[in-house]
Design goal:
The protein is mainly alpha-helical. It has helices at 2-41, 45-59, 66-79, 85-106. The longest helix has 40 residues, at 2-41.
């Protein structure tokens, strides 16, 4: 019975670790995206950092990146940029790959 418990504990630890890594990767991808978009919006470095933090905070509302799209769309429209929801999701996917790579090299 001890071997079964050990396997169960190992599985639970791996699940918790994977969930934590996914959370960190999404947060980092949102920060990278926020910094990129801040540049597109013409924000300075201090404002860009604050904007990126806002994007990260917006992502906590629900699973996936739809909340990020809703958060940044008004800013994009106000500046008259030609960035649509599909491009936002594409950039987020690119930054997610980059974020995961960064986390893997840090580990």
């Amino acid at each position: 019975m001890s071997q079964f418990e050990d396997r169960k504990d190992a599985f639970e630890e791996k699940y918790a670790h994977d969930a934590e890594m996914n959370f960190k990767a999404e947060a980092r991808a949102c920060k990278l995206f926020g910094l990129w978009l801040a540049g597109e919006l013409g924000l300075g470095s201090a404002d860009a950092e604050a904007y990126a933090k806002g994007v990260v905070a917006a992502n906590i509302e629900e699973h996936g990146f739809d909340d990020v799209v809703r958060y940044v769309t008004p800013d994009i429209e106000d500046k008259g940029l030609s960035i649509d929801a599909n491009m936002i999701l594409h950039k987020l996917a690119q930054f997610l790959v980059e974020a995961k790579a960064q986390l893997m090299t840090e580990a």
